Amino acid sequence: MGDITALRGVWNIVPTPFLPDGALDTASIPGLVRFVRATGVDGLTILGVLGEAGRLGDAERSAVLAAALEAADGTIPVCVGVSHAATDRAIAFAREAQNAGAHSVMLAPPPLARPTDAALRRHYLAVAAAVDLPVVVQDHPASSGVQMSVEFMAALAAEAPSCRVIKLEEEPTPPKAGRLVAASPELIVLGGLGGEMLLEELGRGSHGTMTGFGFPEVLVAVVGRWRSGDRVGAAAVFDRYATLVRFENQALLNLPIRKLVYQRRGAIAHATVRAPGMPPDAGTVADLEDVLRRVGLDRHLAAGSVLPELLAG
Amino acid sequence: MGDITALRGVWNIVPTPFLPDGALDTASIPGLVRFVRATGVDGLTILGVLGEAGRLGDAERSAVLAAALEAADGTIPVCVGVSHAATDRAIAFAREAQNAGAHSVMLAPPPLARPTDAALRRHYLAVAAAVDLPVVVQDHPASSGVQMSVEFMAALAAEAPSCRVIKLEEEPTPPKAGRLVAASPELIVLGGLGGEMLLEELGRGSHGTMTGFGFPEVLVAVVGRWRSGDRVGAAAVFDRYATLVRFENQALLNLPIRKLVYQRRGAIAHATVRAPGMPPDAGTVADLEDVLRRVGLDRHLAAGSVLPELLAG
Amino acid sequence: MGDITALRGVWNIVPTPFLPDGALDTASIPGLVRFVRATGVDGLTILGVLGEAGRLGDAERSAVLAAALEAADGTIPVCVGVSHAATDRAIAFAREAQNAGAHSVMLAPPPLARPTDAALRRHYLAVAAAVDLPVVVQDHPASSGVQMSVEFMAALAAEAPSCRVIKLEEEPTPPKAGRLVAASPELIVLGGLGGEMLLEELGRGSHGTMTGFGFPEVLVAVVGRWRSGDRVGAAAVFDRYATLVRFENQALLNLPIRKLVYQRRGAIAHATVRAPGMPPDAGTVADLEDVLRRVGLDRHLAAGSVLPELLAG
Amino acid sequence: MGDITALRGVWNIVPTPFLPDGALDTASIPGLVRFVRATGVDGLTILGVLGEAGRLGDAERSAVLAAALEAADGTIPVCVGVSHAATDRAIAFAREAQNAGAHSVMLAPPPLARPTDAALRRHYLAVAAAVDLPVVVQDHPASSGVQMSVEFMAALAAEAPSCRVIKLEEEPTPPKAGRLVAASPELIVLGGLGGEMLLEELGRGSHGTMTGFGFPEVLVAVVGRWRSGDRVGAAAVFDRYATLVRFENQALLNLPIRKLVYQRRGAIAHATVRAPGMPPDAGTVADLEDVLRRVGLDRHLAAGSVLPELLAG
């Protein structure tokens, strides 16, 4: 198993690029990986919920996986979403990820009509046993419909140490982050949800965040200052961009906004959200431009720009 | 397009057979198709929700499709579930079904966070335009999370006549069946939900049922009598087996019970439900045996038996 | 505390009668209580979910409570629904019930955005401590949105013995009934859900049922035979009426159907469901008449008839 | 009917004060009303969801209503939440509000198992016909479980002009605000959700916000600048406090945080949330203090302070 402790800091959930007609745009993947790596994140996660993994065919999944891992080429660790309704299929996805060189996999609870701890544990343990990779436990009831207690996740981690990384997205996240950290010093707790509660999660002992956000540099700057002991500086960066974080993290609009930002920044060729998903309405596009201008990020929409001044100070 | 009016009477939703280790059991498919055909149903439907389609990989789907169509060999029409979160993928599934010789496809609403009529219509129209097959509109809010109004479905059918078959599973079904039939004489309304309200649905003008049930002969006998004008006889058959229908249609247990019945009847080699699904508990197995004995169907569990006496009278 | 073991057998959830204009019809309550008592049930439960308790004002609740207890007059025990979103209000309701002479109270989980075991336990313990009455724990996730584990309910009963009666309505009920009974010999498990799984619940060790049903005599006959050791006879009665049980237990229609049956049987003056609830559509009324005729209960719709022949044999 | 166009600008949803033991604290209500009025809001709304109306008994509701209206004494208009599961009870609440001198009432969809437009319309029209007051339509699917389309709300407003004020809380709110405004110039659209999307809602043509927030002055300042044409100034105020808005608007924690802020500001004597609600955890309290300090509002926690400098500039 790779170094599980690499799962900290900022991991960016990358979107899956599509062509205007909805076909997979694998040609954009190398540039996307380079772009994300250049933002200074600690890792990237592909094929997550906001990577539209649920809208891909199996061959498309494999193509995204192969292209991303080839582009990463060992220069940045890659976590791969492997969630599936069937345990066997999640295992197949996890093995494919391992064979392709993934650092870790991310697994949400399967859609169980009656999600008991026993059924969840079987699913997680089966996947964990099938690969020699960290298994990030995705705790996102809004998409999975499953609430996992602190006690369940701590017990799972004790039983299968590769499952000791939690992507915490049950709101409100800060108190649960605190309870998870208190439950076991072994747990690695990462936030999500667009980074909206990043500062407070860090304050409760979280180890970083694994989330999509159009300007990962902001999150990198917050976490970097925090880790270096500069909590005031971390908060100052966070608060400065809080209005953007809030804006991007709108229900239903977060992915279209994020893909538009990535496209404007040159990371992907098209902002297409796969149907029946929709592009943002014109008002939302105008609002995005307005908020970017207000926080001074509009000038960083030129291709390839990576905000060194933000990272610097 | 094949004859859309073939979508009436009794269509059996067939389960997908798995080996004890969870692997796909394609070897069981020819026998399964023969078994179902011998029950006298008008058609069969593969890869539905209770066909565990959501637990299959794409290659497994293709294998089930190919095996079922080859086994049917034109002797019985086959409807193929093609539901997917992405419009493009549903289209790909539908085209694959058409190429394999399917009679029709079945399509549930995609999982939309905000399911508007406009988004649903786009999804259905895109699939309908991509193939020359009837598209059965699956109205099952319990699994899709989407409620479709009578007005929506009637308008959709007017716009795309291939979408004028409704698999109605929004409870309570009888009143909605009546409203659908009243909304347009073009609509073909099929019930579902294990046949639990079959009699009342027919009474409101439904055209039959498309559902899983371990003894399809019972539903065939009910619908046959009804169609021939023998409503009293139809009710007598239904009421006699109502306690079994009620028992099999239990939440979460319906699929495990049904697979067990199919296995006992020799239709499939194993009753395996794919993990994280579970087999029925011992008490449920005992209850099944008890209720089958009470309604006199226990003696029909021998391999291949098809209840000619039920069909006869 | 009254005899908690009286909570077994058949307890009928009685509807709340309204006048055609929606006003409370307290004048019907004495006759309703007499009617239900004459069906041979062991107790009756007022102000439950299907007693439309949520549609009453506090003064109306008090009026129903007073009228029902006065009518019961100690001749039959009365359980009173006291569910409320606030712990203090549930306590106030429970005390009012105790003062009026109730045998027991019924309490559903409060609507908690994040229902943890700790919060549920606090709510139940506070109500249990405030009165000297059995507290029936209503386990009905479909209305409460809360799933309670067997472990939680067994632990609660161990901590507060007055909370050891479970009204079990988490589907599928038979396996959970078995697990509850196995978890603690102290638990008293009652089914519900219109009696649809009564037979199988008894088979797993349940102690009866607390449910609404238009012909409580049927349930009384089933449980009576079961208790006397005549399981075959119990099943025969159940199966004979299974088609009616299934029909009445339709989602959304169960209450309108039940009130209509009660009105036809002379138990209440009007079948009114309080707005925005609606009466059954004409087709459902016709279906009811048809199914009653088929099971031979149509002739028992005359006022006051109580099916002695069913009870007899 | 009072002037419906008064429903614009900022209306503060006020919390209901409780004593530490959970009893209603009517003594705090006059000070609460004075405090809110002094923040410069256009009106206040009592007995809303975050006013914990669902946790009150009818007599308690009446006490809050009487105390608030007496304290307001015509100096500030008061909107009264009258939502109830029964149409008759909502009418009774609305009449009581009218008799007490309320400016308007607020009504959420009733909890209907199958919320059709027809049933919703009947409920709204019945309440609107019963009083001579504006009826604010609360569009908050997260608490009501009901999604209302733009078409439905526009048609309702056309049929009952007193229902033409929408409290819009279906996320994402900005696009729907734009669609509502475009659907009819008669509609008055108010945001909510803690003000988190206030700026973007105004940009789409909303008329203000009706929401709880611990520092209503911030919202007043944003809306005031916007109305005077100073959009840049409005955005500057909003962005400065966006990190606080985001923090307070956390799921489940919003009410406990808000009550704590109100208590610290001297508006209410105790921050008690009625059980089974809970106070904020210690970490959340610390986080609140931290974020208040960062935005410079910590020094305004002294009793009675109303931020004249914010209002000034």
Describe the structure.
The structure is a homotetramer of 313-residue chains. The first copy, chain A, has 313 residues and is of the alpha/beta class. Chain A contains 13 helices and 8 strands. Chain A has helices at 29-38, 58-72, 87-100, 117-130, 141-144, 150-159, 173-183, 198-203, 216-227, 231-248, 254-264, 282-294, 308-312, and strands at 9-13, 43-46, 78-81, 104-107, 135-139, 165-168, 188-191, 208-211. In chain A, strands 1-2-3-4-5-6-7-8 form an 8-stranded parallel beta barrel, surrounded by 6 helices. In chain A, strand 6 (165-168), helix 7 and strand 7 (188-191) form a beta-alpha-beta unit.
The oligomerization state is homotetramer
Mean pLDDT of chain A: 95
Overall strand count of chain A: 8
Separate helix tally of chain A: 13
Major β-sheet profile of chain A: 8 strands, parallel, barrel
How large a portion of the residues of chain A is in β-strands, by DSSP E? Answer: 5-15%
Shape of chain A: globular
| Structural classification of chain A | alpha/beta
Helix percent band of chain A: 40-55%
How many angstroms separate the termini of chain A?
36 Å
Q: Order of strands across the biggest sheet of chain A?
A: 1-2-3-4-5-6-7-8
pLDDT < 50 stretches of chain A: none
Order of helices and strands of chain A: EHEHEHEHEHHEHEHEHHHHH
> Biggest interface, and residues per chain?
C-D, 32 and 32 residues
**Radius of gyration of chain A from CA coordinates:** 18 Å
